[in-house]
Amino acid sequence: MSELQAHIRLSVEDSAKYAIMPGDPGRIDNIKTFLTDAKEIAYNRELRSVSGYYKGVKVLAVSTGMGGASTGIAVEELHNIGVEYMIRIGSCGALDPKMKLGDLLLVNGAVRDEGTSKAYIESIYPAIPDTELLINVIKAAKENKVPFYIGKARSHDSFYTDREEEIDKYWSEKGIMGADMETAALFVIGSLRGVKTASVLNTVVEYNGNLTDEINNYVDGEVSMKQGESNEILVALEAFVLEEKREKERMK
Ligand SMILES: O=P(O)(O)O[C@H]1O[C@H](CO)[C@@H](O)[C@H]1O
Ligand SMILES: O=c1cc[nH]c(=O)[nH]1
């Protein structure tokens, strides 16, 4: 589809094979520091887009905003312009007491406790990343010696119901490691559209930490969380480079 997409405001001419996708448009500033020839190409609503190169590989950085619904729109429109690989680089609340601020969660499956993915397909359909892309993400995390865990996340739609503590305790006891809002929609819509997806989450609230205080600290630039953010960007970009290498090997 060559037309201008209605929300991301990009068309095929702007496209790249790879997209790195934070929730927060502000996080694009940090991504830009990793790129050469970075160009702001669109900014509509919460969807800010930059194109650039990492180690010679063209990438788009596109923010999704908060929640499955706006993420779903971004995934669909990026797919329409030809993006084939999408890695979310988000923030999460820890549901596992081991996870410390700035630790990464490399998500190998998500609980679909949100509405967007259910609008597409029934809840028994799995929310899982692309296996090869997850392998690249894990390899990149190991090679770059960043602190990480591999595990499941719960994607949710609410932040401030009266039952948040109880809900977190329930999923924590079931072995779910982190909570975010977008991963399940990304995995499910990506799978249905044939897009290869992964999700890397930076811990910004520890289990039993104070949600409001810790997210405020992240926004104010607390060091370990900012380091986690830089680590997740590096891991995602390195995973794309590994994918390019794998593809070249396959073509030989
Ligand atoms: O920091 P991002 O990537 O937006 O991710 C997390 O932060 C937001 C809530 O504070 C939600 O979007 C949640 O998924
Ligand atoms: O519980 C939490 C904490 C941070 N971010 C989320 O999306 N959920």
Automatic annotation (TrEMBL):
<dbReference type="GO" id="GO:0004850">
    <property type="term" value="F:uridine phosphorylase activity"/>
</dbReference>
<feature type="domain" description="Nucleoside phosphorylase">
    <location>
        <begin position="17"/>
        <end position="201"/>
    </location>
</feature>
<protein>
    <recommendedName>
        <fullName>Uridine phosphorylase</fullName>
        <ecNumber>2.4.2.3</ecNumber>
    </recommendedName>
</protein>
<dbReference type="GO" id="GO:0009164">
    <property type="term" value="P:nucleoside catabolic process"/>
</dbReference>
<keyword id="KW-0808">Transferase</keyword>
<dbReference type="InterPro" id="IPR035994">
    <property type="entry name" value="Nucleoside_phosphorylase_sf"/>
</dbReference>
<comment type="similarity">
    <text>Belongs to the PNP/UDP phosphorylase family.</text>
</comment>
<dbReference type="InterPro" id="IPR018016">
    <property type="entry name" value="Nucleoside_phosphorylase_CS"/>
</dbReference>
<keyword id="KW-0328">Glycosyltransferase</keyword>
<dbReference type="Pfam" id="PF01048">
    <property type="entry name" value="PNP_UDP_1"/>
</dbReference>
<dbReference type="GO" id="GO:0005829">
    <property type="term" value="C:cytosol"/>
</dbReference>
<dbReference type="InterPro" id="IPR000845">
    <property type="entry name" value="Nucleoside_phosphorylase_d"/>
</dbReference>
